[in-house]
Specification:
This protein has helices spanning about 20-25, 45, 50, 70-85, 100-110, 185-205, 215-230, 235-245, 255-265, 270-280, 280-285, 285-300, 315-325, 325-335, 340, 345-350, and strands at about 10, 35-40, 60-65, 95-100, 125, 135-140, 150-155, 160-165, 170-175. Helix content is about 45%, strand content about 10%. It binds nicotinamide-adenine-dinucleotide and zinc ion.
Length: about 350
């Protein structure tokens, strides 16, 4: 039985960040217990770190999202640090403040505080047994939809795959559109394109259902408005949240399948990897590829070229196999015979052009 979950508590609006502590207390009133802020280290520079008001027992820990996307060992290490510093006592709440990487780390830490072993043991669907510590998301970069999904995407020793479970969805979200205004223009666009591409792929796919569709349509429109018309940050932020709400009721498609290898083998980050791939998928996604190019142009962002230059035949083979691992998404995009349409040769030709 696939039950769709929505975030049950949302605080939205400019300057709402000032109300973070009241929001926490209203939802989780056990004030004698401590809370953990997991905050993107970039906020030492943006000034957001100094606006946190941790109480004496609270912990504020940095998540470094600048070097690489989250790994299972980062999550295990944070869990161990929290339990060590607090002698095994569990927090009342975890607050994840940052982009998709930090929000996913906070989700995964909340799960790993109450479940034994390594985060790598829970990459997959519904593998989490024990109830997680409650958590609140504070997005500071919009587009992944991580603030609204039940997935915490992690790179493990064997694969890049999310912890997908009812324990890895936020209990609440605080959205303050001012917080996303310090993001550099290229990052803003690439993460925004992740949302745009989720929407295009899901709306084209057979897995989309009528519950997911209105969210995806609105999220796509919001992203296009922002990057082609007027930079309304509230609209972009809401668009990301709605994109996340649609994901559980749909699938991604060819772009996410092909971007897997670009990220996992060549080390590109998720948003840029998707943008590079989508730029070559006109044959499948038609005029939306033209829209993506217009958004790049208008926002003066230049995609890297020669991305797959120097890829060895072994790496290429691996990338093709990785793409086929997203079977559910490829079935949604192309039907059960997807391998006859998107053949290994076809994938290789698409990769060559990137
Ligand atoms: P990110 O979180 O990796 O951050 C990218 C960069 O932006 C980092 O250097 C970060 O420090 C910086 N940044 C964040 N907020 C900022 C701010 N306000 N001002 C200045 N800089 C800021 O980027 P992302 O694209 O949001 O997240 C990508 C991750 O999300 C990937 O790991 C991807 O797999 C995952 N993802 C998760 C889901 C989900 O449903 N859980 C969906 C899609 C993608
Ligand atoms: Zn994505």
């Amino acid at each position: 039985m696939r039950v769709t979950r929505f975030i049950p508590a949302v605080l939205f609006g400019e300057k709402r960040f000032e109300e973070l502590n009241d929001f926490i207390d209203a939802l989780f009133p056990q004030k004698e217990r401590y809370g953990v802020y997991l905050i993107d280290s970039v906020h030492r520079q943006t000034g957001l770190w100094n606006r946190l008001k941790p109480r004496s027992r609270d912990l504020a820990l940095e998540v470094d999202a600048s070097a690489h996307e989250p790994k299972t060992q980062d999550v295990d290490a944070l869990r161990d640090e929290i339990l060590r510093r607090k002698g095994g006592e569990l927090p009342r709440v975890i607050i994840g403040i940052g982009g998709g990487s930090t929000m996913d780390v906070a989700k995964a830490v909340s799960v790993m505080l109450t479940n034994p072993g390594s985060a790598a043991d829970y990459q997959g669907w519904d593998l989490v047994k024990n109830k997680a510590v409650p958590k609140i998301a504070v997005p500071t970069l919009s587009g992944t939809g991580a603030e609204a999904t039940r997935t915490a995407v992690l790179t493990g020793p064997v694969r890049k795959l999310g912890i997908n479970s009812d324990q890895s969805i936020y209990d609440a979200v605080l959205m303050d559109p001012e917080l996303i205004q310090t993001v550099p223009a290229d990052q803003e666009l690439y993460t925004g394109m992740d949302n745009f591409i989720h929407c295009v792929e899901s709306l084209h796919g057979s897995a989309m259902n009528p519950l997911g569709k209105p969210f995806a349509l609105q999220a796509k429109a919001a992203t296009e408005d922002f990057f082609l018309k007027e930079k309304n940050y509230a609209e972009l932020m809401v668009g990301s949240f709605l994109g996340g709400c649609s994901i559980a009721n749909s699938s991604v498609g060819i772009c996410h399948a092909l971007s897997y290898g670009i990220a996992f083998i060549l080390g590109y980050r998720h948003g840029i990897a998707n943008t590079i791939v989508f730029n070559q998928l006109e044959e499948y996604y038609g005029e939306d590829v033209g829209k993506l190019r217009r958004m790049l142009e208008k926002n003066k962002v230049q995609l890297p070229t020669g991305v797959t230059r120097g890829v060895t035949p072994e790496q290429l083979e691996r990338m093709i196999q990785l793409a086929y691992m997203l079977e559910r998404d490829l079935i949604s995009a192309l039907g059960p015979d997807f391998k006859k349409i998107l053949t290994p040769e076809k994938i290789a030709r698409l990769y060559e052009r990137m």
